[in-house]
Amino acid sequence: MARIDVREESISLDEPFLVEGLPGVGLVGKIAVDHLIEQFSMTHYANVHCEGLPRIGVYHEDDDELKAPVRLYADPERDLLALQSEVPVSGSGAPEFAACVSGWFEERAVTPIYLSGFPTEKDGSPEVYGVATGEASTHLDRAGIVPPRETGFISGPTGALLNRAVETDSDSVGLVVETDPQFPDPEAARALIQGGIGPITEIEAEVDQLVEQAEQIREQREQLAERMRQAGEDESTQAKPLGMYQ
């Protein structure tokens, strides 16, 4: 049965932001969310059991506890949630997955921040753009985040989540960052945190480590990045110009 199982009922959150880290082009969302979870020592708060997710058990180095492949982490001090995923969401299961987690967000007054990469040849620091649903444009205005410069769309599971937010007129933010189309991109993940997540949530995160350890991060994430390249649009979240499809 599709559900989200809360493990830590004692944790109290008050209309938190949630940062989504599903794998996508450049792995920008996953790298950013993994970094926030580690830096803030966030607590494993809940397991996500929704349609569209593989029924597997995940284990980590030097840890004998099996984990669900998609999990929620919480930081009550910062009133922050993070969705961490070890695996892609299947294209066919993305709508069911989106309905499952979005319903839970709406019940608990969670404002999700959805992350996506825009594959391009970067010139200087990656640019970050924002879109919103419901009344969440106020967060973009407050943070000084501008909309994209051209018409386009966000595909993959994150696109399904944003489509669900449009359908239900619920509050959500979508952040799009310029990213390397072929390889894991820690620099773009840093730009997401510095230029998007941080200003919206009003948290301060140390991000120099993302660039200092860029090569190590790329090596650790390259296998997943290759899987996302092979999967194409169905499983890989990314932003694209709409003109390509007209």
From TrEMBL:
Region (Disordered): 218-246
SUPFAM superfamilies in alphabetical order: Cgl1923-like
InterPro entries in the record: Proteasome_assmbl_chaperone_2, PSMG2_sf
Bias (Basic and acidic residues): 218-232
Name of this protein: 3-isopropylmalate dehydratase
